[in-house]
Design brief:
Length: about 220
């Protein structure tokens, strides 16, 4: 079996599934630090052109009501069938990431290396004091992720962007979806790499996968999961 060294940018994500890696691969440490090359305006079928928010901040500022008091359990937010499809080989139960305040912020991760294909999915919930506070946070997050577009029909406001990074000739494509639902934010990150070809999955695959997970996470929030 050939030796395929992993790029530094993926090491932090691969550590939880190191036992799945091919023997002889060298693991090192470091965050996803490579500067992303924004490559994608999401398909017009799934996302409109970008703007700061799907609903106006002026409307949100008038609404100080609170709908959600606590963050729901994130590892139950996405159906097992979706996990199996998006992250082949991952344990469908997921792994919740420790939080400094689990009442207000919770995240679950699924990741797996199947053959040479690697996939990673994160679903996070954050609870703000008011709808207007959540809208402000939403707009700030969207402004930091240029090059994407609004996703109609998901929550009160939703935004999707896909970026491609390359490190040591290894490509990684990552999709991020941010959704506001009243005073809650739902954030989904979905990425992947092929360590044999060193290519990344198609933009459409990553974008649609991230949006699908986001829709289901929003439904779980509303259903009180």
């Amino acid at each position: 079996m050939r030796h395929l060294p992993l790029p530094l940018a993926l090491t932090a994500r691969l550590s939880p599934v190191a036992v799945l890696a091919v023997a002889g691969w060298a693991l090192t440490s470091g965050p996803l630090a490579a500067a992303p090359a924004t490559e994608h305006q999401p398909d017009q079928e799934t996302a409109a052109q970008p703007s700061a928010g799907g609903s106006s901040s002026a409307d949100a500022s008038k609404d100080t009501s609170t709908t959600y008091a606590t963050a729901p359990a994130p590892c139950g937010s996405v159906p097992k069938a979706t996990i199996t499809s998006l992250v082949p080989g991952a344990k469908t139960a997921g792994k919740e990431i420790p939080s400094t305040d689990a009442k207000l912020r919770r995240t679950c991760s699924w990741n797996a290396l199947k053959g040479y294909d690697y996939r990673w999915l994160d679903v996070s919930y954050e609870i703000a004091d008011t709808n207007s506070a959540a809208q402000k946070e939403y707009e700030e997050r969207v402004s930091d992720k240029s090059g994407g577009g609004n996703v109609p029909g998901v929550g009160d406001s939703a935004y999707s962007v896909v970026n491609l990074t390359t490190e040591s000739k290894q490509q990684t494509r990552e999709g991020v979806v941010v959704v506001r639902v009243n005073n809650a934010l739902v954030m989904v990150t979905y990425n992947g790499s092929d360590f044999e070809s060193k290519k990344a999955p198609a933009t459409d695959e990553i974008n649609k996968g991230a949006i699908k997970a986001a829709k289901e996470a929003v439904a779980a929030l509303r259903d009180g999961v």
